[in-house]
Every structure is written in C-alpha cells, then in structure tokens.
Amino acid sequence: MSDPRDLSLPSLRPSATELLDAAREHLVKNVLPALGDPALRFKTLVAAHVLGVVSRELSGGLAAREAIAEARDALLGEPGSDPALCAAIARGDFDAQPMAEALMAHLEFRTETALAAWNPAFLARVKAR
Amino acid sequence: MTTPQLSPHAEALRAELMPVFQAECRASVELLRMTPLAGGASMETWALDVVVDQQAESWVLRRDMGSNMSEQALSRRDEAAVIEAARLHGVSAPRVRFVAPHDAPRGWFVMERRPGESVGRRVVSLPELAHAREGLARSLGRELAAIHSVPAAAVEAHLRSEPLAPTEAATEGLRAVSQRIARHNPVWALAFRWLDAHRPPETGRRCLVHGDFRIGNLLVTPQGLSAVLDWEFAHLGDPHEDLAWITVRDWRFERDALEVGGVGSLDDFIAGYAEAGGEAVDRARVRWWAMLGNLRWSVMCHAQAERHLSGIDRSVEYASLGRKSAEIDWEILNLLRTEPSP
Known about the structure:
The complex is a heterodimer. By secondary structure, chain A is mostly helical. Helix content of chain A is 72%, strand content 0%. Chain B is of the alpha+beta class. Helix content of chain B is 44%, strand content 15%. Chain B is built from 13 helices and 9 strands.
C-alpha cells in the first residue's frame, strides 16, 4: 500500500480496494451459491463484476487518468479537455495524416487503458489473435 | 381452479387476462401456471401454461412496464400486428393469440410459445446446439431475406413513417441520444465523422427491417432456427441495417472469429440471404451499417446507464453497462483500422 497513487487515505488498511475485494468475495463465495432465482443470480453476478471493475479502476485509475490527459493535451497541442477533443474531431482537425494516425494511436491507448480495468479478459482475448 | 401461490402482481395480471382469453376463445380457459421469464426493465415476459377446451397450450405474454426504452420502439399492439404480418408472409415468427383491448392500462399481447434457446451465450456454446450452429448463419440469412420480402403495404400502417433517408435517420437519431447523455467520448466523435464522410448514397429502397436481428433475439433448437423474436424496433429502412447488426462484436458472445453472431461467417450468411431471394448485398453498405451498429450499441450502453443514474430504472445491470462501452469502442477502432482505404 505504499503506492502513492492509491486513492485510500494514507497507510489505511484495509485499503479501499481491499474492502471492495472483500465485498466481492462475499458475494461470489457466500451469496451466489445460496441464490436459486436466475434473475437474482444474474444481477448479483453483475454486482460482483462491478466491484471488481471499481477495484481495478482505483488501483490504477489516477495514474491512467493523468497519462490519458497528458497524451490528449499533447495531441491537441495545448491543455484541453475531452469535449475540446471531440469538437476538434468533429471539425475535421484530424482528417488528414499525420494527425489521423496520431489520433488513432491516442484513442487505442485510451480504450486499452480502460479495458485493462473494465474487462482485462476481453483485452487479453483480442490481443491474443 | 386457481393457480397456487401467485404474487399479488401475477394475480392482478391473471384477473386482467382471463376475461380476454375466455371471450376470444369462446371456450373454457384454465390457467395452470404463469412463470416470469427474464425480461428487460421496460417489458415483462411471462410463460403461460393453459388448457383451452381440454387442450393444453403454451403461450408467452409480453407486457409494457410503463417506462419505454426508446421513442423508436413500437407499441405492443403494433409489434403484435407486425409479427402477425411477418408470420403470414412466411417468416418464422410466433403466432399472436391475443392483443390487449384498447382500454387496457398497459399494452400487452400473447403469442404461442415456440421451443428453443434464446440466451446468446448459450446459443453459441451449448453442445446440443452444435449441429444447429453449423448451418445457422446460412439459415439466418434465408430468414432475413423472408423478413425483407414482407410487402411494405402489409406493415406500414403499424410503423412510424420516417421522412429522412435511413442512413441519416440512423446517425441523427444516435447523435441526439449521445448529446442528451453528454459523455464526450472521442471514439464516438471519430465514428460519427467517419459515418458522415462515408455515408452511402440514398437508393430510395425501403423494406421491413427487424431492427434487432441478432443472437439473443432468436430461438434456436437442435434442429435449427425456431423463431425470430423481439420485433419492437421494426421499421421501414435499408436492409443492410439488419445484415450488419448481427455482426456487432458484442453479439458474438466471445466467439470472436465467427462474425455472424458467434455462429458463422458473413459469406455463409449472405449466401443464405441470396438463396432465399434477398436482393444483391453491397458489402461497403454492410460495413457502413456495422460501424453504425457498433456505435449505436456503445451509445446505448451509456443511455441505459443513464436510466439508472436518472432514477428512471435503478438497476445495477444498467449501471454496469457504463463500463462496457470500451469493448465496443475497441471494435469501432478495429473497424476503422481495417476499413479499406478509399
């Protein structure tokens, strides 16, 4: 827990992610096996899944957010925002090379960064092709 | 005899349905069992086991729950009419048995229950469906050709009339949703830019489009396709919209290499379509609609997460879709990378 980017309060144990993991484990190990109703099972599985997503988001999230913002601003050539990037794309600022390729590389980086937290199994599957 | 242990809601439903059944069957109708089936938040679905005049029958009830998923969606009454028209023109659609009277508090209809598996993940993986999967892409193509050949005159009274060209209606509708939910996703911005720049010319050609033709909305038995369900997004439009929607990566349920719904190839699907009289397929148009389809699903994931956030439908399932879009955005970028250069 010495990672300075951990979003928990300093030296707090369990950390935020450890607490989420505990809740997730409880749902998977104790609650799910006790559920008979398929609809309730499905929603509980989804709930366990989102706890995993948030846990991964918290452990890498701040670093990822900074890296994405930095890369975006480099692409825009000035401190900007996602709405500003969307507007620039819609205006056609990235239609021609080399900007088109720079934009693609940036969007792939963002999407893969998100997937690492949201669905690492998907990323591994499509990367393995 | 009454069905044992019905919830108060099921009891109220039973009280609403039975007089309609009795009146229209002109016979004694006995409800043996009503079982809730997995449904969305906007619609409830029930399996009904009944005895009509000593004869056992299996039905399915589809009923509104009060919050509509989309303004594009048909009413239950219109959906039932479109299903019946399609069935009468040779489409594998379930026979509609009853439609709610005009003064019913919520729209509903009852159709016959067809056999088969509808859950996408199981359709692509169950061992007992392995044989059915071999010919499925081709038979789905044939089925889609049957849907597209239903005469517009048989259904247009039940469908919204759309003044815009189908490709424009699709992008403008989606743009409106993405602006309403305000997510500022640059992948969406790039996809819209591409769709606008590569929009295929309007042909004026319109046919009955199912609007949600994919694994998950189809019943499959070991013998093959049993029925096409979920017609609420039917409209008159470009046949390529349906041809492409089933290739959206998320409908492959992890069978990534099988681009038609995780069960077969696009070549087989299009061959089946041509075999059954489908008009010539323009691959570039299919690619345009595939881009639109993936973008639509990414936007819809956030629109559904928004239903949770706004309090219309509090649901962890909807909330979780707000973290699904990256998978679809990955596919949008993949399609942009593999698009042949002009």
